[in-house]
């Protein structure tokens, strides 16, 4: 049992620092990540019923998804506002927007629990793999709902529960065992908090969304070797790096070696690794 108590403000400050530190790694790996994630981006935009000229909000955009995908859909007559609390991650999102030649995206460095857009600002709101980082999901959902036009849709994706997300559950299982980590204190968000059966659906309904729809899909990551997978995770996985980084250098090397070995167990006969990660997509409408 964990004896620590959870402080949302210090957790959020820690998140900001961890993701700022991970930004360079996301710049390096964004093509790998987004090649695998594009089908999820497309489905989020599809479920949100985003059309040309729409006004769209992307909450917790990270390096700019699904904001970039939505911006291509809404076209020059539409507008996308992309928010995140990490200025480091937003800097990469800005680079990606420029790389795609888009000029219909604006950015705001904002805590997702402190959104304050005027009532009915957006036709649709999207959020990919972001809500589970928030201590108060209900506060964010209620502001998101308010920011929508009547009949506007909010669509999000969250990760499923271990073992269906090996990308994260392989290292987390090994680190929990090897470092004898205490469970997080009650109330602390984890990558899997919203993956429990019915959790995100209930949160939508509690926030007043109607026509709530849930489905799942797979994001398949491909790696040539176990080491290529661990390099990817060292670059992008801020919460996992935070667990390893406090260890002596030799121990860090040993832990990443164990993680590479475990990933290799998923190799096919040619030796490459295909890693399907299950994500839950939820859509709801403002009445
Ligand atoms: C791995 S990214 C995921 C988000 C992105 N949409 C994606 O799918 O790649 C995690 C992001 O959550 C952001 N984040 C964590 N807590 C946040 C908060 N309270 N408000 C806004 N952004 C937050 C981090 O800054 C980081 O950019």
Structural class: alpha/beta
Mean pLDDT: 96
Looking at the structure, the CATH topology of the domain at 8-160 and 186-218 and 278-285 is Rossmann fold
CATH homologous superfamily (4th level) name of the domain at 8-160 and 186-218 and 278-285: Vaccinia Virus protein VP39
CATH architect. name of the domain at 8-160 and 186-218 and 278-285: 3-Layer(aba) Sandwich
Uncertain stretches = none
Fraction of residues in β-strands: 15-25%
Largest sheet: 7 strands, mixed
Number of helices: 9
What does this structure look like?
With 287 residues, the chain is an alpha/beta fold. It has a domain of 194 residues: Vaccinia Virus protein VP39 (Rossmann fold). Helices cover 45% and strands 22% of the residues. The chain contains 9 helices and 7 strands. It has a 7-stranded mixed beta sheet. Helix 1 packs across helix 7. The longest helix has 40 residues. S-adenosylmethionine binds next to helix 1.
Briefly characterize the structure.
Helices cover 45% and strands 22% of the residues. It is α/β, with parallel strands linked by helices and 287 residues long.
Keywords:
globular; 9 helices; 287 residues; seven-stranded mixed β-sheet; alpha/beta; binds S-adenosylmethionine; Rossmann fold
Write the layout of secondary structure elements.
Blueprint: H1 8-47, E1 55-59, H2 67-74, E2 79-84, H3 87-99, E3 105-109, E4 122-128, H4 137-147, E5 148-159, H5 166-179, H6 199-206, E6 210-223, H7 226-236, H8 238-244, H9 249-264, E7 273-285
Parallel strand pairs: 1-2, 1-4, 2-3, 4-5
Antiparallel strand pairs: 5-7, 6-7
Helix pairs in contact: 1-3, 1-7, 5-9, 7-9
The structure holds S-adenosylmethionine (SAM).
S-adenosylmethionine binds at residues 12, 15, 19, 60-63, 65, 84-86, 89, 111-113, 128-130, 133-134.
